[in-house]
Amino acid sequence: MTRFESSDQGTFGMLDFAGNTAFTLELPWRDNIKCISCIPQEKYTCKIVKSPKFGKVYGVMGVEGRGNILIHSANLAGDIELGYATQLQGCIAPCNKLGNLLNKFGKIQKAGLISRPALNRLMSWADGYDFELEIKCSHL
């Protein structure tokens, strides 16, 4: 996964999995602070977990100082302290495209769109097996 843009509206990247691609959506970088920051650049193992809210999804293991980092569907990942909406608390959301949505605060916000089908493609590709996720930044 390569992050290519980050702002108060979220961090956006591209995930490549065996020739398949999806955009990614994460919170802005806020020094790895739990629930308000994306996770650090690193290599992580992803394993199937059972989430009470999202069901069977992949969990990102071994994030220093953090837990319960999931890969699940979402559309918004902005800094709530600055008037942007979020549906993430440090997790990663795959998306089929990027665009804009009107958030609950009445602001137009950059967003990940068509997230559930992108998550379904990733889940189908991984087929329940563990995989390694390497997070890099292209030019942030």
Short description:
Helices cover 9% and strands 44% of the residues.
Can you describe this structure?
The chain has 140 residues and is mainly beta. The chain has one domain. The protein has one helix and eleven strands; from the N terminus they run E-E-E-E-E-E-E-E-E-H-E-E. It has one helix at 115-126, and strands spanning 2-7, 10-17, 20-26, 43-51, 55-61, 69-71, 93-95, 97-102, 108-113, 131-134, 136-137. The longest helix is centred in the C-terminal third of the chain and has 12 residues, at 115-126. It is globular and about 40 Å long. The two termini are 14 Å apart.
N-to-C CA distance: 14 Å
How many domains in all? 1
Largest sheet, spatial ordering of strands:
7-3-2-1-11
Q: What radius of gyration results from the CA coordinates?
A: 14 Å
Low-confidence stretches: none
Specify the helix fraction band. Answer: under 10%
**Strand proportion:** 35-45%
Largest sheet: 5 strands, mixed
Topology:
Elements lengths: L1 E6 L2 E8 L2 E7 L16 E9 L3 E7 L7 E3 L21 E3 L1 E6 L5 E6 L1 H12 L4 E4 L1 E2 L3
Task: Give descriptors for this structure.
single chain, mainly beta, five-stranded mixed beta sheet, four-stranded antiparallel beta sheet, 1 helix, 9% helix, 44% strand
